[in-house]
Write a structure and sequence with these properties.
Helices cover 40% and strands 13% of the residues. The chain has 386 residues and is of the alpha/beta class. Strand 5, helix 8 and strand 6 form a beta-alpha-beta unit. The structure holds pyridoxal-5'-phosphate.
């Protein structure tokens, strides 16, 4: 026997877990044992793809279409439909050449980060914010630079906060945001775009929660400047998480590079999902009904949490999350989440996922799931004895 040993790469080993997925695994394992479990931990609709999307796929399968690779940037019909979507929804005209279909927003970030940055580049990520920006940047050898935001700025980034962190090559923003549900107003978006443009900071705007807002609709970065990258997806509003489908709107300076990366890393997004995605654009009634349901879930959750004394929450104007300060209960939200799951069957996500510094005081509740789970969870929390 030789004494050689194998291990994963050091950089990859330093990538932290995505705790929401770890909690999901624990919750589904628990449910599989027949234990009552309330799923408020993961940001995924409990509904499936809209009917029209499913029918389009059935038709394609019944017609025995080969469903081979598509062009790397995606099915031309889907790209054209996305161009029309920007016109219809935002009154912005974009070129078909700017659109690339990707295997979920997650693949979009990998492509955007690899295309725009070099190893060692400093890329601003908001804290709290979606953890995979930070973790994907680490995996790719770039340096995520946390930009702390909080209630004092309404959970929005400001010029002052950006100035404080020193020079950046990139900045990732999301509106509506995960985990706070914050929707950035148009003035803030314009200001961030101008800030980045004058400093040659590559702005990447994650617009995955567009369509899920409870007041004013979210504004897109598309059309405000020729430089930003926009990433969007079918996972949230379109209720198609497992189909792994998203799109990017790319500035001219990144298109060829992203195309070459996509050819080599993914070839193309899944063909069958692209067929479904195309049809999903015509399912607005069904999808808007989901948003009406989320609005009701949100009210019930906020009201229910207040019965447990959980009242210090970010104003949730979009997405489907409530980000709550639980420092009156714990300074170890990871432990709290494990206890709630073990003792009550309530699965939620520790704030540590979203904010390495202050997350131990916060918990994220997702209200994308069923109203019944939300009601049961609130009842259990109200009777819980810390
Ligand atoms: C803000 C944000 N961006 C991206 C993603 C991942 O999206 P996709 O399923 O399209 O890869 C998520 C998933 O929760 C998210 O919350």
């Amino acid at each position: 026997m030789s004494s050689v040993s194998f291990s994963a790469g050091l950089r990859a080993m330093s990538v932290p877990p995505f705790h929401a997925m770890t909690m999901s695994k624990r919750a589904t394992d628990r449910a599989a044992l027949g234990l009552n479990t309330m799923f408020l931990q993961v940001g995924q609709p409990s509904t499936g793809a809209p009917l029209g999307a499913r029918r389009a796929v059935i038709d394609a399968l019944e017609a025995d279409r080969p469903l081979g690779y598509t062009n790397s940037p995606g099915l031309p019909a889907l790209i054209d439909r996305i161009v029309r979507h920007y016109d219809d929804r935002y009154d912005v005209s974009i070129d078909a050449e700017s659109v690339t279909i990707v295997a979920g927003a997650s693949a979009g970030f990998t492509l955007a980060f690899l295309a725009a940055f070099d190893p060692g580049d400093r890329v601003g990520v908001l804290e709290p914010g979606y953890p995979c920006y930070r973790n994907a940047l680490i995996a790719l050898g770039m340096e995520p630079v946390p930009i702390p935001i909080g209630p004092e700025t309404n959970w929005s980034p400001t010029r002052e906060r950006l100035d404080e962190v020193g020079p950046l090559q990139g900045l990732v923003i999301a509106s509506p945001s995960n985990p706070t549900g914050t929707v950035l107003d148009t003035t803030t978006i314009d200001d961030l775009v101008a800030y980045c443009d004058t400093r040659a900071i590559q702005l990447i705007s994650d617009e995955i929660y567009h369509g899920i807002t409870y007041g004013l609709p979210a504004s897109t970065v598309v059309g405000r400047s020729p430089h930003p990258v926009v990433v969007n997806s079918f996972s949230k509003y379109y209720s198609m998480t497992g189909w792994r489908l998203g799109w990017m709107v790319l500035p001219a300076h990144l298109r060829d590079t992203v195309d070459r990366l996509q050819q080599n890393l993914y070839i193309c997004a899944p063909h069958v999902s692209q067929i479904a995605g195309l049809a999903a654009f015509d399912c607005t009634d069904e999808l808007d009904a989901h948003v009406t349901r989320y609005a009701r879930n949100r009210d019930v959750l906020i009201d229910g949490l207040s019965r447990s004394g959980i009242v210090d929450i970010a104003r949730a104007d979009g997405a489907f999350y409530v980000y709550a300060d639980v420092s009156h209960l714990t300074h170890d939200s990871m432990n709290l989440c494990h206890r709630w799951l073990d003792e009550l069957g309530v699965a939620v996500t520790p704030g540590l996922d979203f904010d390495l510094d202050r997350g131990h005081r916060y918990v994220r509740f997702s209200y994308a799931g069923s109203l019944e789970h939300i009601e049961q969870a609130c009842d259990s929390l109200a009777t819980w004895n810390p």
